[in-house]
Amino acid sequence: MASIRANCRKIICIGRNYADHIAELNNSKPKQPFFFLKPPSSLLIPGAGPILRPKGVKLHYEVELGLVMGSRLRDHDPKDVKGALNSIAGKLRLYNAPNKYAGTSYSHRLSFSSGYVVAIDMTARNVQDSAKRAGLPWSIAKGFDTFSPISSLISKSAIPDPHNATLHLEVDGVSKQLDNTGLMIYKIPRQLADISRVMTLDPGDLVLTGTPKGVGEVTNGQVMTAGIRVDGKEIEEGRLEVMVKDREGRYEFAEN
Fold it and tell me: In which domain of life is the source organism classified (predicted)?
């Protein structure tokens, strides 16, 4: 999992991709898919510690299916469903060739399997709402350190159809989110096509495919569990458990 964090160049997320989630936040359905970025520094791999809630932040959870890209994708045809799903599969091998311009003579090879992860897109909701009211970008609301916890890697074969799996999230053992990925408004091939016509998707990039209804707040000391089921069976690699702790430091939320 450390290799995923080390080689993830960008995290791309689709917004408003489940109708009931759009309704619960009183948002409007987009006419086209829209996306936002999260920094790779926000990734929190299993066992790396708690989610840190900055001072004054109203912290919300959003469980999602994540795609770890296994091959480069650029200007993809949305009708090519097989090609889109194949871009998630396989063994990823990254090579850093010697750089003659920098005078270095070393080379390094790293390999890991691509596939799926369960992710929680943590959101500083009051930071986001304040920025929206002021007509300002809201990258900070999604980008704090630890705001992208992910599960262990799930092989592609464990989820034969990523549009027919059940995402779930609990807070202190109480069910909060439970829905099927088949409810996505824009399916994975369309998402990858729309992203790749703007920016190249590289091996190791992480794509978050949207959250179902049931998002809500978590506070200091609460524990979230999340996962994914296929045909009613829990995928062990997709199990995620993480605690929320208040963060120390100089940041404190203030209205824009």
Answer: Eukaryota
User: Is residue 254, in this structure, part of any structural domain at all?
Assistant: no
What is the count of structural domains for the chain? Answer: 1
Domain that includes residue 19, residue range: 2-90+109-246
pTM, rounded to two decimals = 0.90
Which tokens go with 130? 């304040």
Which residue from 61, 114, 112, 85 is spatially nearest to 223, judged by alpha carbons? 61
Is residue 148 one of the residues assigned to a domain? yes
Strand 206-208 versus strand 63-68 pairing type: antiparallel
Beta bridge partners of 234: 229
Q: Hey, what amino acid is at 113?
A: S
What is the per-residue pLDDT across 5-25, written as a single tens digit (0 to 9) for each?
888 999 999 999 999 998 998
Write down the pLDDT at residue 110: 44
* Tally of CB atoms within 10 A around 228: 25
Cα 172 from chain centroid (whole Å): 22
In whole angstroms, give the CA distance from residue 241 to residue 223: 7
Relative to beta strand 240-246, strand 51-53 is parallel
Residue type, 104: T
Q: Which residues are registered as beta bridge partners of 170?
A: 175, 225
Distance CA 39, CA 217 (A): 22
